[in-house]
Design goal:
Length: about 550
């Protein structure tokens, strides 16, 4: 750019600047006139109403100061023992017991709707919700209402409020007959303004015949990517409480029956079941594997005279199975027990354990089952007492009757497994059954063969809604027979030497089984994907969060 050009540009800028400042001056003058008129009007109004004239100052004074605001970062400096908190679900009980007494409640801002001098928040605590009103009155200033309206959804707040009975039911909350009239409100932890998913969307019913099925739904990957938010929905809160129930019932029932809980190593030197589906991990200068099951260790505990053992723990499978029912890490509920003469002694114990679990879920988790049913199609789970037991050959015959062609010793394919489940349900009206005497060829090396027919074995699977949830068998407790069978399966004996050695000091006959926890919960509730019942699922494509 030449000098002349530069001068021109400067002159132009000057001109523009001048025009702009003229405009600004005009604007200011206009505003001054407006303000003067406003003041005049106000003074006249004050004179007519006989007010003192310093209304502005009064309005600006915040009489709620100190009763709201962002709380100091809680670093355990004080206990505030004067603040007795009440759970949202206990509010009506509290109101009955202590009428006119105020309550402290901590919860999340589920929704927020503010207009003028009042603000309606729905406060959520796990799956309970209550409406809160923050309205300008003689203790709540407009600044406090404004602050309440500025709190982002999902933030955590502490409220002090009066419990007020409402005349018409609040349909959108679990607490329908009361609301909280807040007069103190503190922000404990703020959520960022833009949420990757809305809890309302993630909670929306997803039912096959739902006329609203076209409404916004949150897809599975978005849910799993933002699992912490997703887990806040009522259905997810219920699923994982029920899952805890499965583990608790499993433990309680077995403990009552004389079982001892054991813990088995997850880092092992050789694949427990043979095969390639093991994860290798580096182990100092060497490598090791992640256990595919606690199988060998449960049996060694039996050889060590524990008689009846169970374990609840992580199981790893390096299978590239991208299905609705496979994870690469799941929780195994495993058990093993001795018997006197027949493995059906154990089969009965396992079958009855399931019956007890189903009864416990039905009786103690009705609220959770309903919460899940509010979002997903959930058919009540049906079971017989005692459980139905069929032989593998009977199952094959039922399938052949409906035109399925399969060999006697062929394993059940997933579609055939499901079809058999439907046939069993139609014939026996049960969602749970046991299939006994599987072909020996499709079972692991440690499975006891059937003494009467070399094609069969003393092994069984159990099914819920037509899908396998347990695999088990009588195990070979004779070391020489065990070696023979391991060699037949081309297993390197040297790698399982300590396992085989365990049987050389005398070992009682025993049987047991392994259950997939996530599958049990998925199938009990009739959900369509195992990722819904694993809090932070691991599959071939997902290793986070
Ligand atoms: P599948 O044939 O369904 O792959 P499997 O025969 O490999 O199962 P087992 O090794 O017998 O299963 O394991 C016992 C139980 O553990 C199964 O009945 C199932 O409930 C559970 N399970 C097995 N593999 C998985 C997996 N990848 N993800 C989740 N659960 C599993």
């Amino acid at each position: 750019m030449g000098i002349d050009e530069k001068t021109n540009v400067a002159a132009e800028a000057n001109e523009t600047g001048e025009t702009q400042s003229k405009k600004a001056a005009k604007k200011l003058a206009k505003e001054a006139v407006k303000a003067a008129k406003k003041a005049e009007y106000k003074a006249a109004a004050a004179a007519t109403s006989g007010a003192s004239g310093n209304n502005d100052a009064e309005a600006a004074k915040d009489y709620s100061e100190g009763k709201y605001g962002a709380s100091k970062l809680i670093q355990s400096q004080e206990r505030h023992e004067d603040r007795i908190f009440t759970r949202v679900s206990d509010l009506s009980q509290f109101a009955e017991k202590y009428p006119n007494q105020s309550v402290w409640v901590r919860g999340r801002v589920h929704t927020s709707r503010c207009k003028g001098k009042q603000c309606f928040l729905i406060l959520r605590q796990q799956s309970s919700t209550v409406q809160c009103l923050i309205a300008v009155n003689d203790v709540v200033s407009k600044q406090m209402v404004k602050f309440s309206g500025s709190i982002n959804k999902e933030s955590i707040i502490d409220l002090r409020a009066k419990i007020v009975a409402v005349s018409s039911k609040i349909e959108s909350c679990t607490e329908q007959n009361l609301e909280l009239a807040a007069f103190e409100i503190y922000l404990v932890s703020s959520a960022k303004p833009q949420l990757p998913l809305q809890i309302e969307d993630a909670s929306r019913p997803e039912k096959n015949n739902d006329p609203n099925s076209l409404q916004i739904r949150v897809n599975q990957d978005t849910r799993l990517d933002n699992r912490v938010l997703d887990l806040r929905t009522p259905a997810n809160q219920a699923i994982f409480r029920l899952e805890a129930g499965v583990c608790r019932l499993f433990r309680d029932i077995l403990a009552r029956n004389g079982f001892t809980e054991i813990h088995t190593p997850k880092i092992i030197s050789a694949a427990s079941e043979g095969g390639a589906n093991v994860f290798t991990v580096s182990y100092f200068k060497d490598s090791a594997y992640l256990a595919q099951s606690p199988q060998l260790y449960k049996q060694m505990a039996i050889a060590a005279d524990f008689e009846k053992v169970y374990t609840v723990g992580a199981v790893f499978r390096a299978e590239d199975s991208n299905t609705h029912r496979h994870l690469t890490e799941f929780v195994g509920l495993d058990l093993e027990m001795t018997f006197k003469y027949h493995y059906h002694e154990v089969l009965d114990t396992i079958g009855n354990t399931f019956t007890e679990i189903f009864k416990g879920l039905r009786d103690e988790y009705a609220t959770e089952i309903t919460a899940v049913a509010n979002q997903y199609d959930v058919e009540p789970f049906k079971f017989l007492e005692p459980p139905l037991r069929l032989e593998y050959a009977q199952g094959v015959a039922m399938l052949r009757e409906v035109g399925i062609e399969m060999g006697d010793e062929e394993d059940l394919s997933t579609p055939n497994e499901k079809l058999l489940g439907r046939l069993v349900k139609a014939k026996y009206d049960t969602d749970f059954y046991i299939l006994d005497k599987f072909p020996l060829a499709v079972r692991p090396f440690y499975t006891m063969p059937d003494p009467n027919n070399p094609k069969w074995s003393n092994s069984y699977d159990m099914f819920m809604r037509g899908e396998e949830i347990l695999s088990g068998a009588q195990r070979i407790h004779d070391p020489d027979y065990l070696i023979e069978r391991a060699k037949h399966h081309a297993i390197d004996i040297s790698k399982i030497a300590s396992y085989i050695e365990a049987f050389r000091f005398g070992c009682p006959p025993h049987a047991g089984g392994g259950i997939g926890m996530e599958r049990v919960v998925m199938l009990y509730l009739g959900l369509d994907n195992i990722r819904k019942t694993s809090m932070f699922p691991r599959d071939p494509k997902r290793l986070t969060p």
